[in-house]
What does this fold into?
Amino acid sequence: MTSDNPVLKLRGITKSFGPVEVLKGVDFEARAGEVTALVGDNGAGKSTLVKCIGGSYSVDGGEYLFEGGPVTVKGPRDASALGIEIVYQDLALCDNLDIVQNMFLGRESLNRRTRTLDEADMEHQAGQALAALSVRTVKSVRQKVSSLSGGQRQTVAIAKTVLWNSKVVILDEPTAALGVAQTAQVLDLVRRLADQGMAVILISHNMLDVLKVSDSVAALYLGRMAAQVRTSELNQTQIVELITAGRSGSLGLIPEGAAA
Amino acid sequence: MSTDTNTRDVVAEHEAANPAANVTALIPQTLGGTFRSYLRSVRGGETGSVPAVVGALILMVIFGVAQGNFLSSSNIVAIVQQSAPTTIMAMGLVFVLLLGEIDLSAGVVGSTAAAFGAVLSVKHGMPWYVAILGSAAFGGVVGLFLGWLRAKLAIPSFVVTLSAFIAFQGVQILVINSKSNGVQVSDQILHDLYFGRLAPDAGWILLVAGVALYMLVKLVQNAARRRKGLAAVPLAVLGLRALAIAVFGGVFVYLMNIDQSVAWQQRAGIHQQGVPWSSVIILGLLVVLGFTLTKTRYGRHVFAVGGNEEAARRAGIRVMSIRTSVFVLCSALAALSGLILAGQLGGVSTGDGAGNTLLLAVAAAVIGGTSLMGGRGRVVDAILGGVVLAILQNGISDLLQGNNASAYELIIEGAVLLLAAAVDSVSRRARR
It folds into this structure.
């Protein structure tokens, strides 16, 4: 997959809840091997957009293209069948299970002959997934998740997506609750995830994180895509302006009333 | 900014020179290491079987000192037999408790199901296996209904099963439907569920086969781990565990095989010896249910739903089916427990299984180490707790005499349940 062809491409996506139009024709794309930051103020429609991508919400209008072809995503199962994984902010890990058990939850591998859980195989694969992401913070894959720090939990949730050969990984505020050192670790992880060839969509409120790790920035403003620009062409002020005003210099939405 | 990139380069170089190792389980490779890591986990709040085992030992010492015949072989056999109904009910409750639910109706439903089985046997002349299957099916259907109410209608299990606790006392009267307020069981096999004993040799054969099977399974698992390049449990630790099981089992079988018949009975060829059938049933259930809980996808999903329902749902687990299934399992095992109790009492009377039958079974599971809050529990917990409670009941009923004996007995049993719940809460806090 060349980076000229986005894995995920949305065109003119609209979504309303009753009379409230939350997404007003959003264009968005995510490329393999890249981190695409999705930014926007509260209520700009980030979560709605993510839920539309993940199939939790069905879109009202617009085009949903996956690997170049139009697809209809009617539920979370459709999305995961395509290879789209969402790591939610609350992580959804079971505290009473260990790392391996959590990573394989719902998709446990079974021994071919006895149809019992193949713990050795799962442990092996989990170890490989963590090694592929150069994870060094985990001592034993048989640790209970309850004994892990916030950053380690995030690591487990992210490593899970490697295990399932996902094509698009959406991370919802992965660093929101973390300290400085752990944030750095998780951002490294996000970068490595993209280096593995995945299209990573990073939702974040932290401009430094966005500038540090992303390849392109998509800024939502009141249900519209203000701009999707290469991160290298942006600075922090411009991102903040895109988020708060929907435009920054020549970038962004054309102000209403000033029709071109 | 430049210092930042410099540090990152240094880190990157270091990481390139030392690629991340493939992490596996951290399994101590020496006996001492295994022991130390066990101590650490106990101190960290993973108390496991420790409270139950320590409790059983303390109680045995106290009662042994207080009454000379407490530790006689016949009394030990009695304790083992008395623990059976509670233990089997507790085994079902472990599954319910793992989801953080409760089944207050298991005692009454169990005895109602047993009454159903007894009626099949006595009034309809059905063979014993039909009675047992009918009884278990009765329990299963009731459990399906309770589980459906909990899972589908989202009524709290406390309310659902409390209602069933009351209602099934009525159903029990209807099922028994007799002026004498009871059905007497005449079938010998049904009696033997409680009183039956294995031939002495069969006990030894079972022990040897059991230890051999345990060792075989562990070695096969270890070999599978080694093939994948994973850390495996050292052979010495495995051997020691097998040895411990063999020694404990050997003492158990030896004690059970001591002939308790008196001289004239022995002259007449009557012997009272051998491992109780109920112990064999419990062992069988331990293997089957333990396997289900730890080695199958279903068991893993039970733990997941008990740990984080939302995570389980997102992982595609059918939470509602899991929730319903544990009530089916619990009620079916309660039926078996009720049948064994009926074997002990010679039948089912109205009111059996009410009172504190259920709470004792809950206490057994919790004393063994199963959490009341869900997510943590083992099948073997039911056995450990069941034995502790049987020791307690047996010892107290002999120790306390006089008018208020039963009053003190109730107070002590209540206090023990509370103590077990307190240990559960404290150990949960220690883990945080």
